[in-house]
Amino acid sequence: MLLIYAKKITNRLGYTLNLVFGELMGIEYSITTDEDFFVESKDPKLSYCKHKLCDEAFLCCDSLLFDTTIELVDVNYFERNGLPYLFKQYSKDSICDYDVLASVFYLVSRYEEYLPFVRDEHSRFKAEDSLAYKKGFLDKPVVNIWVRELKQKLQTIYPTLESKKSFFTYTNTIDVDSAYSYSGKGVLRTCVGFARDLLKGNLALCLKRLSVLIGKRQDPYDTFDYIISILQKYKVNTTFFILFGDYGRYDKNISPYNPKFRLQLKSLCDYAKVGIHPSYESFEESELMSEQIKMLKSLLRKPIHRSRFHYLRFRLPESYRELINNNIEGDYSMGYSNAIGFRAGICNSFNFYDLALDFETKLRIFPFAYMDVALKNGLQLSPDEALDKIVSIVDKVVEVDGHLISVWHNESLSEDFGWEDWRNVYERSIEYVSKKKEALFSNK
Length: 444
Hints:
Elements: E1 2-5, H1 11-25, E2 29-32, H2 35-40, E3 45-49, E4 57-60, E5 78-80, E6 83-85, H3 100-108, H4 131-135, H5 142-157, E7 169-176, H6 186-199, H7 203-213, H8 224-234, E8 238-242, H9 259-268, E9 273-276, H10 286-300, E10 306-307, H11 318-325, E11 330-331, E12 350-354, E13 359-365, E14 370-371, H12 372-378, H13 383-399, E15 403-409, H14 422-442
Parallel strand pairs: 1-2, 1-3, 3-4, 7-8, 7-15, 8-9, 10-11, 11-13, 14-15
Antiparallel strand pairs: 5-6, 12-13
């Protein structure tokens, strides 16, 4: 048991202590504001304040976790041995020369996304505006790295301090933005598609569309059997996120009432978990999200507890509050569509902290590390270059015993429309992850 002292206990501090010590370190701890009790205690102990009290491990604090306002803060950024650090401290007694807890909270709470910023064309926070991107550490799970360093320091001081071992895990997620390329589009959309291809002089696409519609060829986007074969082969934990809204400029899935589409969704539940992919339009019209969740729930006859926003179009804290209002327990949107890495600086799940209301919620955030679209379009990588990037990310998550989440689309596994050779990237990346897990298991 680790005894932690602070002059006062705030919601921010309690949240961060639980994440750092309870979840990431797996250390039992208690908190006290009683200085005399703390000094007299013979247990392993850590003080989080401005000055060391006795013979304890001392961590010099910044004011961030004791504030309740949201304002521009100086993060006092610095680097050492190729790693970034925030909230530098100058106390010679502190076991760290930076405030680990304030650093963790700043990134995980997405503090910078509550400050004024210029939204992109889809009203999103841009990767380029993040501290991690600007300072070049977006591809590092720095929160996990910082917590591991703190844990090592504490266990050096207190060798008897017990902690629970964590293990590398992986979740394969598939976004279904458009279940089929040609099938199930209805007469009007099909005619428009034919007309568009003819106007462009693309007779080959017209013939391909026709061969799919008359049943002589499988729809290019109908890659579900392939995906299921991969998850069965490698025994991969998988979740599908289904766009289940009406047709729109950015919402181009099959009608929620299409029989073939509905049957496909029911069959997916036999092999994987299914979550909602709230439509692009639901960003401005929150009632649409509720309708889509209810419709998907009614079709599958199962509660819907997982979500990832279409186009990753969300804003803090409003979008997450809407998820909570709709009984969503886990969100998988924390990442970027044009960059890979760790938007919140962490590769493990964590509870959403509503910074505006200053309290911890029960909504669990599952950050993803890379997305197919970010690799191909955002970074403009070739399949071989993308695989190298994925391997690098996997290795970094394995090193900190974290949870890796990837994002793919049924479309990107079509081997068509510019996605040629990307199935190879998908399968080789999953094979690499599986081999890593096997190696770790054999070394236990």
